[in-house]
Amino acid sequence: MSEQPRRPAAGAGGKQTRPAKPHRRPQKDPVRMLAFEVLRAVGERDAYANLVLPPLLRKARQNESFQARDAALATELVYGTLRRQGTYDAVIKACIDRPLREVDPPVLDVLSLGAHQLLGTRIPTHAAVSASVELARVVLGDGRAKFVNAVLRKIAAHDLEGWLERVAPPYEEDAEEHLAVYHSHPRWVVSALWDSLGGGRAGIEDLLEADNERPEVTLVARPGRSTTEELLEAVGEDSALPGRWSPYAVRMAEGGEPGALEAVRDGRAGVQDEGSQLVAMALAAAPVEGRDERWLDGCAGPGGKAALLGALAAQRGAFLLASEKQPHRARLVERALAGNPGPYQVITADGTRPPWRPGSFDRVLMDVPCTGLGALRRRPEARWRRRPEDLEGFAPLQRGLLREALAAVRVGGVVGYATCSPHLAETRVVVEDVLKGRGAGNSPIAAELIDARPYMAGVPGLGDGPDVQLWPHLHGTDAMYLALLRRMA
Asked: SS3 helix, strand, coil % of the chain, rounded to 5?
């Protein structure tokens, strides 16, 4: 006789009860787990994604099942989530019944990753929700995974444009807040960038949008050591483009791993934004009166500009002194300059209390520490980490370094004051204050501004001068600033 199917056991009162569902262990998705680990490092340790992500990807690639497309998706999830964090916070806030600050940070990271998959990628809705809930089960537990599921289903009710219409105020009512939510920048950053850029709505929207685009990897062929032709051939004609402005630049248009290139491994070439190259080239091209034998990079870490300056100095038989205050960054400078064909020295020293004698150098580059608002494409987390009060912390240092740079150069020599920030308080205001001696105990310095624009030949949109501000949306570079100053008697 065939076996009859079993009937559910009778419960209290004779009612039939369903058998309990067997507990299913959550499945670990290596791509989303990796992305979550990076976001946690950024949130917990103030780490930078561009430093945390590469070693995790290298480790993941040791597993043969982790493919190139997995690495690409993990990278997109990390950077896309960080860039759009402000927008996603506004959306999540609209979908919960408590203040955002009361949501545990790991839960918020999972929600943000899910929101990016729903609103910022082509991942199907059901896949984005289910993968995010599964991640929540692994890292948060079943209880909080239910909360994640409920919130993400609310988010999935609208696309990104639909949510922006709901959470961003109209431009006509509050232009800065509208732009802040729409383009995912803190309001104070929007205000500062708009002041520096000037103009109307179109320009600032183009700039903010450029900050949210993934930048190309740009290489530099260090003159006398490598050539752009070598790099173009090594990268491959389908994946490489010449630089827009620098004769030493090659753009890896299709991405790729720079460290896989022999010239990069040997130090004959490096990774360097084209704006950074232009700053070093402009200082090297500006005319000096008299000898041209001793150059100084006064804030040399991590070494990109120093390596290019060293190669340019070597072509003229000039000596380069590269100084860096932080020992670990000084070691990076030593690595970047290793093998330089001309004479150089790397020292660990504080540029505000320098060991060199006044008037010792013919050219000085002072690329000062700053808020980094010019590199938000590369370090999107910096926009959420920085605060307006940080400007006050950098101000004395920037002025002190520029004063010492002008003291270090001889009469007739040239100083380049550079910073990777377009904020007026870190650029023109610093230069004006130092030249006019503003500040307690300071006296005016005998120096004149040189028009820097001719030394960035062929680069459009450089403004009225004499200083230069580069922009991501206009030049495809980081927002580097440069003022050239000649020391007077």
From this structure: 50, 15, 40
Phi/psi of residue 95, each to 5°? -110, 5
Average pLDDT over residues 362-387: 96
For 291, the token pair is 């000898």
Token digits of residue 203? 């320009």
Burial 205-220 (b: 16+ CB within 10 A, else e): ebbbebbbeebbbbbb
| Terminal Cα distance for the chain, rounded | 113
Q: What does residue 252 show for φ and ψ, rounded to 5 degrees?
A: -90, 85
Is the pTM higher than 0.70? yes
**Per-residue confidence (pLDDT) for residue 174, from 0 to 100:** 98
Please give the average per-residue pLDDT across 144-156, as a whole number: 97
What is the 3 state secondary structure string of 363-431? EEEEECCCCCHHHCCCCCCHHHHCCCCHHHHHHHHHHHHHHHHHHHEEEEEEEEEEECCCCHHHCHHHH
Tell me which DSSP letter residue 84 carries: T
Residue 420 annotated to the active site: yes
Which candidate, 375, 473, 357, 468, places its Cα nearest to that of 420?
A: 375
Residue 11 has a pLDDT of 47
The closest alpha carbon to 135, from 123, 145, 150, 124, belongs to: 145
Locus of tokens 């959550």 = 26
Cα separation, 46 vs 52, in Å, equals 11
Q: How confident is the model at residue 256 (pLDDT cuts 50, 70, 90)?
A: confident
For residue 12, the model assigns a pLDDT of 46
Report the C-alpha dihedral over residues 325, 331, 336, 338, rounded to 10 degrees: 120
| Alpha-carbon gap, residue 250 to 336, rounded angstroms | 18
Residue with tokens 């009225």: 464
Say if CB 323 and CB 302 are below 8 A apart: no
Interval 211-227: pLDDT, tens: 999 899 999 999 999 99
Backbone angles phi, psi at 78, to 5 degrees: -65, -55
Whether residue 319 has pLDDT greater than 80: yes
Residue identified by tokens 């997109």 is 76
pLDDT of residue 444: 87
DSSP assigned state of 16: B
Q: Which of 95, 299, 370, 420 is catalytic?
A: 420
Phi and psi at 228, nearest 5°, equal: -65, -35
Predicted confidence at residue 18, as pLDDT, reads 59
Q: What is the largest CA-CA distance in the chain?
A: 113
